[in-house]
Amino acid sequence: MTVRTLYAWLGAAALALMLPACEPTVRVEAPKEPITINLNIKLDAEVRVKLEEDARDDIKKNPDIF
User: For residue 6, what are the CA distances in angstroms to 13, 16, 40, 55?
Assistant: First the structure.
């Protein structure tokens, strides 16, 4: 057995011993906190549009306010 063959066998043995240590772990777990969805964005946009429309109407009715 040559030195090169010995190193090849030692390298293969080391790789075989280290390979199981690199095995990834996958876990599927339910979250501890409940999932919340914030729907206030749409409501906020509707309120702004309504306020802008009301403001335009008020300015048209009373152009000398400002």
Answer: 11, 15, 69, 87
Question: Which domain range does residue 49 map to?
Answer: 35-66
Residue 44 to residue 57: CA distance in whole angstroms:
20
CA 44 from centre of chain: 24
Exposure of 16 by Cβ count < 10 A (0-12 exposed, 13-18 middle, 19+ buried)?
exposed
- 51 assigned to some structural domain: yes
Whether 30 is in a domain gets the answer no
Number of independent structural domains in the chain: 1
pLDDT digits (tens, 9 = 90+) for 13-34: 887 777 666 667 788 888 899 8
